[in-house]
Design goal:
By secondary structure, the protein is of the alpha+beta class. It has three domains: 45 residues; 59 residues; 83 residues, no CATH class. The strands form three sheets. A three-stranded antiparallel sheet has the order 1-9-2, covered by helices on one side. Strands 3-8-4 form a three-stranded antiparallel sheet. The protein contains seven helices and nine strands. The longest helix is centred in the last third of the chain and has 17 residues.
Length: 252
């Protein structure tokens, strides 16, 4: 672990994502916290599909899409390859081919061969003109599906947690202690049981925000402080204004 950043990476594999996360939590050194998490594999079953001229070739293509080390759960053939003959009439092969492609015989298919089975006639002065007849042999490829599963893998970065303002967790803990000490010395009777605050914990939470704001700077406006209290501690704005006024008065 780097002394300069106090950060390290924990890479864990387990049968399930929940187990991997639990293992990571158990390996976090005291004083550090999880800063980020990247799920490399959720441990759940996944499927891949492929198609080719034969089932064997299709399975080989599907297998190439699966990373090494994964367990194969199931293999199935969605459809077997099929050779089909289609007859169309057209005055030339290009137009005939376009007609075959437009039929959308399957999601995908390949024209393997074409032959002229009946030659048309030009007619006389355009009258009695008849189209050629072509026979196309098309291949509808085999389609397969493989279901696979790997172990859950999670990579987490751990280190000293920072606040949104970039303040270290050690500093935050010190401020919390200061807030607790401040509340212990104040006359809480004018706040508790009057509808302003319901518990000492609420007083400590509001005082913590006020102390943090005053010591870090950049969060000195009452509106910002109140927003932080409401968001992080669930306190009502009307319950906080009095304690903020009292704290500011004590700092003069």
């Amino acid at each position: 672990m780097s002394n300069e950043t106090d950060e390290k990476v924990i890479d864990v594999e387990a049968e399930t994502l929940e187990e991997a996360r639990d293992i990571i939590k158990s390996q976090v050194p005291e004083g550090l916290a999880i800063l980020s998490e990247q799920v490399e594999d959720d441990g759940k079953a996944h499927t891949v599909q492929a198609s080719a001229d034969t089932e064997e070739a299709a399975f080989a293509l599907a297998q190439k899409k699966i990373a090494d080390g994964k367990d194969i759960v199931d293999k199935k053939v969605i459809n077997s390859p099929e050779l089909r003959k289609i007859n169309v009439e057209a005055f030339d092969e290009g137009v005939a081919k376009g007609q075959v492609e437009a039929q959308k015989i399957a999601a995908s298919f390949t024209i393997k061969s074409v032959k002229l089975t009946r030659e048309g006639s030009k007619g006389i002065l355009g009258l009695g003109k008849k189209p050629n007849e072509y026979e196309f042999e098309v291949l509808i490829p085999a389609a397969v599906e493989i279901t696979y599963r790997g172990k859950a893998r999670v990579i987490a970065k751990v280190g000293k947690k920072k606040t949104d303002a970039g303040v270290s967790q050690v500093f935050i803990d010190a401020v919390k202690k200061g807030a607790k000490d401040h509340v212990a010395k104040m006359d809480t009777s004018k706040y508790l049981g009057t509808g302003a605050f319901e518990s000492v914990a609420e007083l400590e939470a509001a005082t913590f925000i006020a102390l943090l704001s005053d010591m870090t700077g950049g969060m000195t406006k009452d509106e910002v402080i109140l927003a932080l209290v409401v968001e992080h501690y669930g306190l009502d704005e009307s319950k906080v204004r009095a304690i903020l006024r009292d704290f500011k008065a004590s700092r003069r």
